[in-house]
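Amino Acid Chain and Its Fold in Token Form
===========================================
Scope: a single protein chain, as residues and as a discrete description of its fold.
Amino acid sequence: labelled as such and written in the usual single-letter residue code.
Position: the record begins directly beneath this header, with no further notes in between.
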Amino acid sequence: MATSRVYLEEGENVVFAVSLDWPGWCRRAKTPDLAMEALDDYRERYAKIVTGAFRPGTFEVIGTAKGNGTTDFGAPDARGPWDQIDLTPRELNRHIALLQDCWNYFDTVVENAPAEMQKGPRGGGRDRDGIADHVREAERAYCSRVGFRVAPRTPWDEQRDVVVTTLRAGTPNAQWPVAYAIRRCAWHVVDHAWEIEDKSV
């Protein structure tokens, strides 16, 4: 039976359940059990993002990572021993393909969403284009964490090409392991794609 590896990132007030095998599939809640339930609840929603076969099977929790202030702020930021193991070339290709699925899904969501979003506490009341700008700028910041700086106002498709090229090549001054960098980027893209869907008028 197929299984999907999951780890729990535990902060003071927030727990993330993070899929190691499916970048972008990551949910949070107040307790480990609730985080795992939330991850499972989003199984079908995440499946719509993946263009290839999606057969995650049952969850296998492989460990726990201690969170930090960023965790409690609302972003998965912890690394674990699983991140000390380099992805094989095949795994790297697969994970990058899934990241590209996440980008494509986000682009489609943005293209089909109304410009004005329902207002509420999440996201500070940003509308569609504000959310897209935030995602783009966050990705630009992420580039520096994997060892390559991207100039402001770089077209988004070129910026994404830089992300992929840098992830494939690796750099000695990278602050983030490649697998974690892909997970963090994919999570951010997917989380805001779902935000736009949920806030569409």
